[in-house]
Amino acid sequence: MKIAVFSSKPYDRHSLEQCNTPFGHELTFFEPRLSPETVALARGFPGLCIFVNDACNAAVIADLAQHGVRIIATRSAGYNQIDLAAAKRHNILVARVPAYSPNAVSEFTVALMLTLGRKTHKAYNRSREFNFEIAGLEGFELRDKTIGVFGTGKIGQMVIKNLSGFGCRILAYDKFPNEAVKQYATYVDGPTFAREADIITLHCPLTPETRHILNEETLPYLKDGVFIVNTSRGVLLDTAKTIHFLKSGKIGLLAIDVYEEEADYFYRDLSDKVPTNDELARLLTFPNVLVTSHMAFLTDHALRNIAEITLGNFAEFERTGQCSNQITE
Ligand SMILES: NC(=O)c1ccc[n+]([C@@H]2O[C@H](COP(=O)([O-])OP(=O)(O)OC[C@H]3O[C@@H](n4cnc5c(N)ncnc54)[C@H](O)[C@@H]3O)[C@@H](O)[C@H]2O)c1
Fold it and tell me: Residues 92-121: pLDDT tens digits?
């Protein structure tokens, strides 16, 4: 199939080309994000391959339909960037990669906890300047902490399993509890979860219900000095209120791999530009905040799986007109 690959970085190109031999798709790589300005590039491609920050809203989808796109496959598990109702109206099938490596995101989540918990990012910077002073680098041990895992699907479960080796107490919260989780964690109700967790890590999808789930009303219920980790979607956190509660000390540590307005900033080198987003700039001034650029998925294993499953999605659609990884809701 002729496929236009948007938001393609060198690592996407490498993994997709490497895995394409058995599929034989005709891949054309476009570096820009899909947007109203770039949608014309998709003309003549029945297959469209996108990523998390591509703008796949109703207007763009209407244009895609006009350009002959019949299937949109996102190289991600989350699909909140796609207007599914609009795709359905235009008879465009939407597919995703439901699971490619929960381990990749889980290990990164634990890495963020350990980095802020032991200040290894600061130690690294000090050593590079020949500053071998360790005062101010005091950390904590995970075994002394109660960690709350919000969302116990594929990634949340792996986080729980990975954390179980540290000897911490693990609380879990999910709308649909999972038996397997109970081996390592205890499901509790929302108020208990909020009250008792020293560290909260978010692993639910972005839905209307989870949008700004940590906000002006819910944040005050958390433990004083709570450590929040978000590797799911930026919009789960109300950024303005998060900054407010960082300033007051209510939030003691924050590690985010995702940011509410990341689409305009992440995956780009803006180091020679003046920062234009005041909230992001403010977040980066806190010594107790760690920001990474939506990269928890970025391992060799995950990229290989993403490429194989995505190319398979196009092949199945081409063969049968259907796709087992179609998003239907
Ligand atoms: N940072 C990254 O690189 C990266 C990579 C992959 C996925 N993600 C994010 O991680 C999220 C989780 O991925 P997954 O594969 O574990 O998804 P999943 O569908 O397997 O699990 C999500 C869990 O959240 C629960 N949930 C949904 N709504 C809830 C609510 N309102 N309250 C409590 N629980 C709720 C579901 O019941 C489910 O158990 C994705 O949606 C995506 O946003 C981020």
Answer: 999 999 999 999 999 999 999 999 999 999
